[in-house]
Amino acid sequence: MKITDRDYLTKDNFSAPESKRGIFTARVVANEPICKEHNRLALKVDSFPASKPGQFINILCSTSESSYPRVIEQADEGQLIMDKANVLAAPALLRRPFSLAGRRKDNQGAQSVLEIIYRIIGSGTRWLSQLGEGEQVNIIGPLGNGFRTDFLQSETLAVLIGGGTGIAPLMYLASELMLKGQRIKFFVGAASKDILPISKAILEDKQFPIIIAAEDGSAGFKGTVLQAWEDWLGRQSLSPSGIVVYTCGPEVMMREVAQRCIAMGVRCQVSLERIMACGMGICQGCAVKVRTETPPYWQYKLTCTDGPIFDADEVIWQDG
Ligand SMILES: Cc1cc2nc3c(=O)[nH]c(=O)nc-3n(C[C@H](O)[C@H](O)[C@H](O)COP(=O)(O)OP(=O)(O)OC[C@H]3O[C@@H](n4cnc5c(N)ncnc54)[C@H](O)[C@@H]3O)c2cc1C
Ligand code: FES
Predict the structure, then answer these.
(1) Contact call for residues 10 and 104 (beta carbons, < 8 A)
(2) Which residues line the pocket of ligand 1, CB cutoff 6 A?
(3) Which pLDDT band, with edges at 50, 70 and 90, does 150 fall under?
(4) Distance 154 CA to ligand 1 centre (A)
(5) From the CA of 275, which ligand is nearest?
(6) pLDDT per residue as tens digits for the range 23-63
(7) Which fold has domain 22-66+84-143?
(8) For the chain, what is the radius of gyration of the CA atoms?
(9) Nearest CA to ligand 1 atom 34
(10) Tens digits of per-residue pLDDT, 210-247?
(11) What ligand 1 atom has the least distance to the C-alpha of 307?
(12) How many Å apart are CA 288 and CA 47, to the nearest integer?
């Protein structure tokens, strides 16, 4: 399936109710590279519940046969024989979380096409990269809370700041906000243009309000996405109540964005990432420390169910 102009725009109207989620069999309609490091996966699914930008799906990144534990040989002395190649080839037992990077309605009735942008880093994403058109994938979703947009006024400027793979959920947010006629400015950054996970269609779309930052100067602003944003901010005379910032990317980048926003009195939402075993509030493995107003002035929240989107001023950053 080819990406056509404006294909990336959300064509469903999604304002997600809190509780609806389900387990679905999706069919691959596209799985192709969009840059040197990232692939775009499009999954067609029947009756997928309403979703919103910032939510994610949990993908079973193995076939049911390959996800059974392998038989590991035992040597006479009782030692397990498991060499490096065996460990690396092991299938992904647990589902892997991926942000929705877009969603559109298929021509045929209640089917939706969910977009994912992923980077190959281990067994699960390697398995994903080998999926061909028409193959089936088991997914659970939509999960998590999603970005809050209810406080945006018609004249508010929504500023989106994404780094690397963190650009994915902001693509979905950008497309939904644009469809609603919201003013947006979308800063995206990577070390170099050829690892920027943005489709050619968007890069060539003059209407899409995107500012590219490449650290090596291969495109747009030469520097980090933070520097590009700071540079732009320095040339604006915006009142803090006139903008809202949404950010996703490396934690160190989001922390800087958050601190800058707090100092300016600008509302900011961040999309946190933690390693997730269940994605549904069961394993308690994705805890994040947040501020509270009463002693001891902090508590744990779960990134998968209370997040992954948090207000910048409630997050207690990992090394801060
Ligand atoms: C809410 C959420 C949304 C996400 N959205 C996307 C997305 O849109 N696109 C995308 O490419 N990735 C996304 N991720 C990360 C993605 O889930 C991991 O890259 C994936 O699980 C890796 O699986 P794997 O089997 O290929 O690698 P593994 O073999 O599981 O891991 C390879 C290496 O990466 C590390 N790692 C794995 N997951 C994470 C993580 N979450 N944080 C930090 N280090 C990790 C492991 O410790 C290991 O060192 C998201 C994660 C979360 C929590
Ligand atoms: S991933 Fe299991 S509780 Fe969040």
Answers:
(1) yes
(2) 56, 92, 96-99, 117-119, 121-125, 165, 168, 273-276, 308
(3) very high
(4) 35
(5) 1
(6) 999 999 999 999 999 999 999 999 899 999 999 999 999 87
(7) Elongation Factor Tu (Ef-tu); domain 3 (2.40.30)
(8) 20
(9) 121
(10) 999 999 999 999 999 999 999 999 898 888 889 999 99
(11) 1
(12) 32
Residue 110 has pLDDT above 80, yes or no: no
> What per-residue confidence (pLDDT) applies to 57?
97
User: Are the beta carbons of 169 and 3 closer than 8 angstroms?
Assistant: no
What average pLDDT does the segment 295-299 reach?
A: 94
Residue whose tokens read 């994912």 = 116
Question: Can you tell me the distance from the alpha carbon of 289 to that of 279, in angstroms, rounded to the nearest whole number?
Answer: 17
Where b means 16+ CB within 10 Å and e means fewer, 275-296 reads: ebbbbbeeeeebebebeeeeee
Domain ranges of the chain: 22-66+84-143
Residue 184 half-sphere exposure toward CB, CA atoms < 13 A:
26
Total number of residues shown for the chain: 320
Centroid of ligand 1 to alpha carbon of 97 (angstroms): 7
How high is the pLDDT of residue 14? 42
